[in-house]
Amino acid sequence: DADVTQTPRNRITKTGKRIMLECSQTKGHDRMYWYRQDPGLGLRLIYYSFDVKDINKGEISDGYSVSRQAQAKFSLSLESAIPNQTALYFCATSDFTNGGYEQYFGPGTRLTVT
Amino acid sequence: DQQVKQNSPSLSVQEGRISILNCDYTNSMFDYFLWYKKYPAEGPTFLISISSIKDKNEDGRFTVFLNKSAKHLSLHIVPSQPGDSAVYFCAGGGTSYGKLTFGQGTILTVHP
Q: Residue B34: its chain A contacts at CB < 8 A?
């Protein structure tokens, strides 16, 4: 079984709709992250959380919100989806070993906003 | 402000030859650097890392070199294999940050 899972794997939605992407992990890590990948722009950090009560904005948090429901679950919401949020979204986890640098990624969610 | 840059969007190499992927950074506070590999339809996976106190780290066919004065790191793959064809991301991190900043990625294609 995968250590980091993301649901859904693919989603097509319309402009203005609210959508939630979910991430679960069985690695027991405290730290969780949400990234988006766009061609030519690499991986950009949206939000990150170092524990259940600690949520931080990344470099591109506008238009997104998150919820850390438990140590193992971290959800990303688009309150009102827009076409330029069409991208590949990844969840990742890490712990404090080696400074927490090594991150473990889920398989990704491909989101299309029409 | 792009703190980590991979200026080559793609690289094509013959099987058995060396692949060299490059990465430049601007943030002097980074004290750890990593390379990730990504296949289509999968998430990135950790490949190799290097601390800023070192200038080289080797793991099998993969070697990462760090030149702090030039703020440059590179990944060498020797010998290259067709299975190495993937997108490679470099990333920098700092102890005070607890997070990584990624480059744009380089698509490596290794031809048989």
A: 101-102
